[in-house]
Hints:
The strands form three sheets. The chain has an eight-stranded mixed sheet, with helices on both faces. It has a four-stranded antiparallel sheet with strand order 10-11-14-13, covered by helices on one side. The chain has a two-stranded parallel ribbon with strand order 1-12. The protein has helices at 18-28, 50-53, 72-83, 100-111, 127-134, 154-160, 183-196, 236-239, 256-273, 278-289, 291-313, 340-351, 377-395; strands at residues 34-35, 94-97, 117-122, 138-145, 151-152, 165-171, 199-203, 230-235, 248-253, 319-320, 328-332, 353-354, 356-357, 369-372. Helix 5 (127-134) links the parallel strand 3 and strand 4. Helices cover 39% and strands 15% of the residues. Helix 3 (72-83) runs parallel beside helix 10, helix 4 (100-111) crosses helix 9 (256-273) and helix 11 (291-313) packs parallel to helix 13 (377-395). It binds pyridoxal-5'-phosphate.
Amino acid sequence: xxxxxxxxxxxxxxxxxxxxxxxxxxxxxxxxxxxxxxxxxxxxxxxxxxxxxxxxxxxxxxxxxxxxxxxxxxxxxxxxxxxxxxxxxxxxxxxxxxxxxxxxxxxxxxxxxxxxxxxxxxxxxxxxxxxxxxxxxxxxxxxxxxxxxxxxxxxxxxxxxxxxxxxxxxxxxxxxxxxxxxxxxxxxxxxxxxxxxxxxxxxxxxxxxxxxxxxxxxxxxxxxxxxxxxxxxxxxxxxxxxxxxxxxxxxxxxxxxxxxxxxxxxxxxxxxxxxxxxxxxxxxxxxxxxxxxxxxxxxxxxxxxxxxxxxxxxxxxxxxxxxxxxxxxxxxxxxxxxxxxxxxxxxxxxxxxxxxxxxxxxxxxxxxxxxxxxxxxxxxxxxxxxxxxxxxxxxxx
Length: 397
Ligand SMILES: Cc1ncc(COP(=O)(O)O)c(C=O)c1O
């Protein structure tokens, strides 16, 4: 068989790295191993129950009535979700997709030609690199400055925008730093993007998971942002902890003429795929109605695990970063000359805890480890204590 040529965009090095190999081995000998990388709510008892899943079987789903952005009733439900946050999101500016990842892909298609550039935060969510690869889009980073509470390096963004830059991506609250974009940052960015003809793409999937009432300085949502062309992203995977629901959405806002043109083009992209299943659209009112209960359960878990982590870390020589929101915590191990991989391997061995190395998220300021706060409390707390013991052994505390 003559080997066909594959696309350059898929020429990834697919060999597992040291961390992946170690993690696979550790999972194979799973006795006592606590997986603190688990962020799938349905695997830790936090997913929706069978009664809500049953809504996906609505009998009206026997008919297929496709519409590029999804059915009007489902989109009106998303509009109500934003109305509850005090923001107007007109139904005609809401597009449903299968997931936030797909929303990104559609927006990169809308905004970028091959080789055009999007700016993404560092540290942040690792999937952005693959999403850009797949659209043949060039990714450049701007920094969230760790020593300033992960504040956005606004000068860095202004400098990084060049003739090929089409979008600035914000993740708010960011994964894994758990920090919201601040109002002052949002104002500066909206003005900058409007001035430079660059769109804002704002991923707010963790927006409902603030650990405490939002600080007045933090910006709750960008839906409704009127100054720059803005696309606000979220979906069921976090809002009701239902990634298997496969429904995300995009809210377009900004200057009217720009939004109208963007929406018209986006409609053709969406119409090409018609991604969203009918069942989940019909179920959307019931699913979104359950969000308060689902989110309360998750936040209770997250707060308890965070309290256990903090109690364990006292006197350990290690620390965690403050977080405003989300399902993750960033650990700073004591300085022992070990890098991310060495620490995660050590914790796998000695603490029987699986954690994520910070470089997955492009942390640049030293050794960092990321843990999910979703695992059950009775597994998380002992794992946190074992991690703290390993920190203490190194720091001599
Ligand atoms: C910041 C962020 N954005 C997007 C996603 C993907 O969401 P979806 O399941 O809707 O594609 C995730 C998933 O973990 C995420 O952490």
